[in-house]
Amino acid sequence: MSELIKMTASELAAKIQSREVSAVEVAQAHLDRIAEVDGDVHAFLHVDTEGALAAARTVDADVADGTQPASALAGVPLALKDVLTTKGIPTTVGSKTLEGWIPPYDATVTRRLRQAGVVILGKTNMDEFAMGSSTENSAYGPTHNPWDLARIPGGSGGGSSASLAAFEAPLAIGTDTGGSIRQPGSVTGTVGVKPTYGGVSRYGLVAFSSSLDQAGPCARTVTDAALLHEVIAGHDPLDSTSIDAPVPPVVAAAAAGARGDLKGVRVGVVKEFNGDGYQGGVLRSFEKAVEQLRALGAEVIEVSCPNFVYALPAYYLIAPSECSSNLARFDAMRYGLRVADDGQHSAEEVMALTREKGFGAEVKRRIMLGTYALSSGYYDAYYGSAQKVRTLITRDFDAAFEKVDVLVSPTTPTTAFKIGERVDDPMAMYLADLCTIPSNLAGNAAMSVPSGLSDEDGLPVGLQIMAPALADDRLYRVGAAYEVARNDAAGGSLVHQVPNLGAAK
Predict the structure, then answer these.
(1) For residue range 462-484, what is the model confidence (pLDDT) as tens digits?
(2) Residue from 180, 186, 448, 454 carrying the catalytic annotation
């Protein structure tokens, strides 16, 4: 294995700028790694070898000319979730509905990455239309967790998290609707951040649930995630939900946290995220993490958020309702898959047959749930009531943040489960997002940072940190401080424990 692929993004960027290594060499090392292991991991749906090397050559030319780097991540490779549009590169959203579609434009996140000199290696696998917690709902087959290839890498952004854990890329982009950045981060031992809703543009992000979807950074260290966050965040007039406010000082906060002092920081432990359904190894890892935060000088307070227990049912009314509306655009009339286009079928028949063939079982399930919840006579009882619960959850967060600076919990109740274990039990699958969904409903910022390996099965566990809206920097200060303390206590970082890709499938 090349030493280059073991380096952090910030280390790679520094070596590229000092001309110790070229961006082309770095890109090629990661492309070689993808060729070596992705047959087993299946993190990527499309690898853009020519585009990546061309972008790397541009960075090298700028370095040779003495041009100021486009960003602190210029020349660093990245894996991009296949839900963000990429001009000239396929965007499938993990669905047969958009198989072969080449977008004519870049998403704002994609454009900002290119402008920053970040080298996009390709597009990563995902649950179809971001609907799932395991990446088993992809129309192109599941992604495997590099820690144990028989297990899931989380979802919906399992391809992005697996690419990091397999050392195929040092950076990735995910999207988080109910936990799709944080839950994969937890089960793969990587860092995943859901920024404040509206903090990163949704323009060019193929919509699942418009009031919940949020793109964010994925990395192997908190500092790298902060650097990527700074690149992709900021106001975008093309997105009506984009916040016109300065980007929180996430990089400075990560640097401050890395000094290992949390004196004066009040940390709230969410009482409701405990008990039945949580693995013992996950809870013990969480308790140990809380003690490490206390040892860093943080004041730890138990906080009750009573309405969090209603987050899961509320989410599974709101998200499917918005999905039902958003996916109506895939009608076989304008772009994407079209079947029975033989002149013998009406437009309505073509639409119905195309949707039948193009959408997978989970997408159909959620469309039907949402259509029912929005139907005449049921709207107030289901969708309207769920929105009221959403307000109560937001109030719980507001009350908690009057007492504490951040909240903490396990990221997900269990470690990675085996592929196929929950495919016939949607409710068990949905419970993977039990701890992450409240932050999506409220729109506040949240992060998952590795908290070691479970003492039950040796698989990664994540610590979730939650902060108020537009206080994303608090995540990075606490996350970086905890990361340093955990690594010191464990004698090294999880990222240096290269997963065994030879594990049984």
Answers:
(1) 999 999 999 999 999 999 999 99
(2) 180
